């Protein structure tokens, strides 16, 4: 392995490659949609071989039975497609990958291993109607909204397993059962951290565009809060906050002394907020600007989560209909409130 960039190439160092491959960790196989080819890391990992325990827990949730027809979204390395082919036969597996190079590499790997599932280069958000209906659909790229074609292409009673996360962050695998009326509903089954489906990536406009050429804090209105920004940083709390605070996302600006600024921005590029964290403080300085008071929204969402007994992922569920998506707590009749802007 090249220690500087953590890269390992099988033909150059098969032993290290094998050790890396058999670790219970995800392995990035592509950066920046293939535009970054240099040594080291690019900006965002865009394809991978998923973490083995994650792959198996999702397959467990999928509950594939002999004879099932399965659609996989996000072929990546092809490993999961190989596992599914082994289980139900290649003739019952369709796998869709948006990235041509990854798809072609995976197809070769699958064929070399003796599997020949239908391997499509295309946008998995559309599913693959030509081979529908499916008994099972598994996505290995995350979404902020379940594509309705997935529901339309899955048989009534069929199961969709997909990583779902709000724009804010936090993400968990949801297991939906498809009803016959175009809806689907089910529980979140565990934390995850997948790459986003390409078309659903959250656009993170740079801070300078929010400030309109002015220096921070620009026109931001100052206040103080007792809620530490550190209290809202855990993955499952971010999920609970994001379920209530739509179309906003955080970013942490760290400083050498361990303090940091938590930035909040909305995807519509109308509003921003900052909260400064310093150790051993009981009050934290807040600046907010724009029609949304983003820190106030996060604080309201945090208080609701706290009042519900600090639920983790497994108390939440999701219902998807033609009209929209509802996240609920404990039962479908108990929707998580939306904090209004
Ligand atoms: C985490 S990797 C998949 C891991 C893989 N299933 C395995 O067996 O290891 C996610 C993959 O989803 C792909 N992807 C992203 N957006 C997609 C889309 N709209 N349609 C299909 N594939 C997509 C990425 O290119 C990437 O290869």
**Quaternary arrangement of the chains shown?**
single chain
Rg is: 22 Å
Structural class by secondary-structure content:
alpha+beta
Low-confidence stretches: none
Q: What top-tier CATH class of the largest domain fits best?
A: Alpha Beta
Domain unit count: 3
Annotation keywords:
341 residues, globular, 16 strands, alpha+beta, 9-stranded mixed β-sheet, Rossmann fold, Double Stranded RNA Binding Domain, 5-stranded antiparallel β-sheet, 8 helices, binds S-adenosylmethionine
Summarize the topology.
Layout: H1 14-21, E1 27-31, E2 45-49, H2 52-62, E3 70-73, H3 79-88, E4 93-97, H4 100-112, E5 118-121, E6 134-139, H5 148-152, E7 154-164, E8 172-178, E9 184-191, H6 207-211, E10 221-225, H7 235-244, E11 248-254, E12 260-266, E13 272-277, E14 284-289, H8 294-307, E15 316-320, E16 325-329
Parallel strand pairs: 3-4, 3-6, 4-5, 6-7
Antiparallel strand pairs: 1-2, 7-8, 8-9, 9-15, 10-14, 11-12, 12-13, 13-14, 15-16
The protein binds S-adenosylmethionine (SAM).
S-adenosylmethionine is lined by residues 46-50, 73-77, 79-80, 96-99, 102, 123-125, 140-141, 194-195, 197-199.
What does this 3D model show about the protein?
Helix 7 (about 235-245) crosses helix 8 (about 295-305). With about 350 residues, the chain is an alpha+beta fold. The chain has a nine-stranded mixed sheet, with helices on both faces. The longest helix is centred in the last third of the chain and has 14 residues, at about 295-305. The model has no long low-confidence stretch (mean pLDDT about 95). The protein starts with 13 loop residues before the first helix and ends in a 12-residue tail after the last strand. The chain is about 20% helix and about 30% strand. It has eight helices and 16 strands. The chain folds into three domains: about 15-50, no CATH class; about 60-195, Rossmann fold, CATH 3.40.50.150; about 205-305, 2-Layer Sandwich (Double Stranded RNA Binding Domain). The chain binds S-adenosylmethionine (SAM). S-adenosylmethionine binds near residues 48, 49, 79, 97 and 197.
């Amino acid at each position: 392995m090249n220690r500087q960039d953590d890269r390992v190439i099988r033909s150059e160092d098969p032993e290290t490659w094998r050790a890396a491959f058999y670790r219970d960790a995800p392995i990035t196989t592509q950066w920046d949609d293939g535009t970054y080819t240099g040594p080291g890391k690019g900006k965002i990992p865009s394809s991978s071989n998923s973490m083995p325990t994650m792959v198996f827990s999702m397959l467990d949730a999928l509950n594939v039975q002999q004879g099932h027809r399965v659609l996989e979204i996000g072929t990546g390395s092809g490993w999961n497609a190989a596992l599914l082919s082994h289980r139900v036969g290649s003739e019952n597996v369709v796998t869709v990958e948006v990235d041509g190079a990854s798809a072609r590499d995976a197809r070769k790997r699958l064929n070399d291993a003796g599997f020949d599932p239908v391997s499509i280069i295309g946008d998995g958000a559309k599913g693959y109607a030509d081979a529908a209906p499916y008994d099972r659909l598994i996505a290995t790229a995350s979404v902020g909204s379940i594509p309705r074609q997935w529901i339309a292409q899955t048989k009534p009673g069929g199961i969709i397993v997909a990583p779902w996360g709000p724009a804010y962050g936090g993400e968990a695998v949801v297991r939906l059962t498809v009803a016959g009326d175009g809806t689907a509903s089910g529980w979140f089954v565990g934390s995850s951290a997948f790459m986003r489906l390409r078309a659903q990536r959250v656009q993170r406009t740079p801070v300078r565009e929010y400030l309109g050429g002015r220096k921070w804090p620009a026109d931001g209105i100052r206040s103080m809060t007792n809620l530490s920004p550190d209290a809202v940083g855990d993955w499952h709390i971010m999920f609970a906050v994001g379920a209530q605070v739509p179309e906003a996302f955080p970013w942490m600006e760290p400083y050498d002394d361990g303090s940091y600024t938590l930035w909040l921005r909305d995807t519509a590029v109308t509003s921003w907020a900052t909260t400064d964290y310093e150790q051993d403080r009981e009050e934290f300085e807040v600046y907010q600007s724009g029609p949304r008071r983003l820190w106030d929204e996060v604080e309201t969402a945090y208080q609701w989560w706290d009042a519900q007994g600090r639920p983790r992922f497994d108390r939440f569920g999701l219902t998807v209909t033609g009209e929209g998506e509802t996240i609920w707590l404990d039962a479908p009749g108990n929707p998580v409130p939306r904090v209004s802007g």
